[in-house]
Amino acid sequence: MSWPSPPAFEAIPPGLRVGAVSYLNAKPLYYRLTEWAPELELTIDVPSRLASGLRDGTLDVALVPSIEAIRGAASEGLTILPQLAIAARKEVRSVKLFARTPWKAVQRLALDEGSRTSQALCRIWLAEVQGVCPETIETHPLGVPIEESLADAVLLIGDRAMTVNPEPFVAVVDLAHAWNVWTGLPFVFAVWAVRPGVDLGGLPHLLIHCRDQSLAQADLLAQRFGVPLGLDRAEALDYLTQVLSYDLGPTELRALRLFARKAAALGLAPEGVDLVFHQPPRGLPLETRR
């Protein structure tokens, strides 16, 4: 199956350091990126470590949890690429909170170390919807099965959240769906964040091309990356094309700003953060194309 070559765009600076995650939900945002731009350096890691890479200067642009973009906008002057995100309009399937007790009885909470946005969303939902602030909050390490945690509730993200058997638990909630029921808005899990002063060249154009072409041929990604996770092709295709959204348009921006305010109210992010957007690619508006 042939993929259209990207249109002509400004050259990408050699050695530009780009960070992305390996999860299925992120694949459409960078699939074939290094084939079209071999001059850049692509690092694959978990979201929280990518955020650390932006802070310590080992990455120039990275797909990071939205909470880290919010925090980084205040502390490091990070900007955000328009039009591109990982969001869910309703359920997301890959961010779930598993409880061994009723929600009101949760006193010990274990949070997957892989994504700080999901950690914040979990705490916001428990506090504001369930009226619960657990006495003990701990990290659930990557690679450790949920069965080994002794916490009352455990947050899991990514591909492993989609394969856990829910039957042993008293309650399971998809946190994107819970956010949508509560606010009526989608939830933005991740955005492309850029360190100040970095010249991206034509990278924003190319990332949009990656997204558009990946979604146009999502069946290929579903087969290549979803099936090895234990998903059937149809389920993976539905996940990539119906469950997830890869736009950062006006509705997603409202959701992101609401999340920033709620995170600040719990002390999880600075107050009054001004989300600044990187200069859009030439000829493309900030608003998502519909």
> How does the overall form come out from the CA principal axes?
globular
Q: Which homologous superfamily in CATH is the superfamily of the largest domain? A: Periplasmic binding protein-like II
Mean pLDDT: 90
Low-confidence stretches: 280-290
The total of helices stands at 9
CATH fold category name of the largest domain: D-Maltodextrin-Binding Protein, domain 2
What's the architecture of the largest domain in CATH terms?
3-Layer(aba) Sandwich
Tell me roughly what share of residues is in helical segments. 25-40%
Distance between the termini: 26 Å
Q: What class do helices, strands and sheet pairing give?
A: alpha/beta
Give the radius of gyration: 19 Å
Extended strand count? 11
Please give the largest β-sheet.
6 strands, mixed
Strand content: 15-25%
One letter per element, helices H and strands E, the order comes to EHEHEHEEEHEEEHEHHHEH
CATH class of the largest domain: Alpha Beta
Strand order of the largest sheet: 2-1-3-10-4-11
Descriptors:
single chain, 290 residues, alpha/beta, D-Maltodextrin-Binding Protein, domain 2, 2 domains, 5-stranded mixed β-sheet, 33% helix, 20% strand, disordered C terminus, hydro-lyase activity, lyase, MqnA, menaquinone biosynthesis
